[in-house]
Write a structure and sequence with these properties.
Layout: H1 12-28, H2 30-42, H3 52-62, E1 75-77, E2 87-90, H4 95-103, E3 108-111, H5 130-141, E4 145-148, H6 151-155, H7 160-168, E5 181-188, H8 189-199, E6 206-208, E7 214-221, H9 227-237, E8 241-244, H10 252-261, E9 267-270, H11 273-288, E10 297-299
Parallel strand pairs: 2-3, 2-10, 3-4, 7-8, 8-9
Antiparallel strand pairs: 1-4, 5-7, 6-9
């Protein structure tokens, strides 16, 4: 997956200038800081004041994260200089999530996935897209800033998205940082599916395999890393079951089908993209809150867009 960097060479000067201005304001203190507190208090927030950029910088610093060239983790709407009254983490900054954030007086949304329906959030990806325009207008009207937090959260150690889903599934005793393999107590594929539906709050799951197959060695790959990486993982560790977020049905699904027809024993469970990564954005609240003790940070589920009939 190509990445688009937050601090590109072209805007390094802009970022340095912003940092200089922020430091200057901090040193100046006095009336400027007092005015900031009064302004934010009027919006129902009276804690320590941070701008969007200061919070982004804090996340990168606390996570020991180096700048990622060409990252997609950029501000999608709003302003880096906006003073933050509350934070919402979510998978997708949907229209519902935006409205709920506004009701919570949270004007900074940290979303894992795109806001404007394509990987780079290119608002001209489809010319004259009326839905994009309405969403932009809504964000502007409610004065909300959205920052995508994709590449950097996956770069945390451990990967917070992976850690979040493992934690919610109750598999932390079998977790090893940096590994995608889990050795869990033996369980049938049917029981494993039931466990995942309950623990991850998923109504339906798709599988390939015999429901009575005993599963112990699991390869867990949340999100949508692509068929090549999914199949490479399956080939390298030969798991009893490969659990993925999203896949191309003509890639990994067909690989698993033929693997079984040729006598192989790897089954497949598809969680769904959002369901497989949502727990990571929920867990991120626990990661971030101690670092911003005065700030209200709330996780809002963006939910499943599909209805099963």
């Amino acid at each position: 997956m190509k990445r688009d960097h937050l601090y590109t060479v072209s805007n390094n000067a802009v970022y340095d200038r912003r940092k200089f201005i922020t430091n200057t304001i901090t040193i100046a203190g006095g009336l400027t800081l007092l005015g900031t507190n009064i302004s934010c208090a009027a919006n129902g927030y009276s804690g320590k004041i941070y701008t969007v950029q200061q919070i982004i910088d804090l996340i990168l610093k606390e996570g020991n994260l180096l700048p990622i060239p060409d990252t997609v983790d950029t501000i999608k709407a709003g302003s880096a200089d906006m003073k933050v009254t509350g934070i919402v983490t979510t998978m997708f900054a949907t229209v519902d999530v935006i409205k709920k954030a506004a009701k919570l007086n949270a004007n900074f949304i940290i979303a894992h996935e795109p806001t404007f329906y394509n990987h780079r959030d290119d608002t001209d990806w489809v010319k004259n897209n009326s839905v994009v325009k309405q969403k932009e207008d809504l964000l502007k009207k409610l004065n909300i800033t959205v920052w995508r937090f994709h590449d950097y959260i996956h770069s945390l150690k451990p990967d917070a998205i992976y850690y979040g889903v493992v934690k919610k599934a109750g598999w932390l005793p079998y977790f090893k940082a940096g590994e995608l393999e889990l050795d869990i107590p033996a369980i049938s594929l049917q029981k494993l599916v039931e466990h995942l539906k309950t623990s991850l709050n998923i109504s339906h799951l798709r599988i390939i395999g015999d429901p009575q197959q005993i599963c112990k060695k699991i390869a867990l790959f949340p999100g949508a890393p692509g068929g090549q990486r999914q199949q490479a993982l399956a080939e390298s560790i030969k798991p009893d079951v490969l659990i993925v977020g999203e896949l191309s049905e003509w890639e990994t699904a067909e690989y698993i089908r033929d693997e079984q027809l040729l006598g192989g024993k790897t089954s497949l469970i598809i969680l769904g993209h959002a369901a497989s990564e949502t727990p990571g954005m929920e867990y991120f609240v626990d990661w971030l809150q101690p670092k911003l003790p005065d700030m209200k940070i709330t996780y809002i589920a963006s939910g499943d867009p599909f209805t099963w009939l």
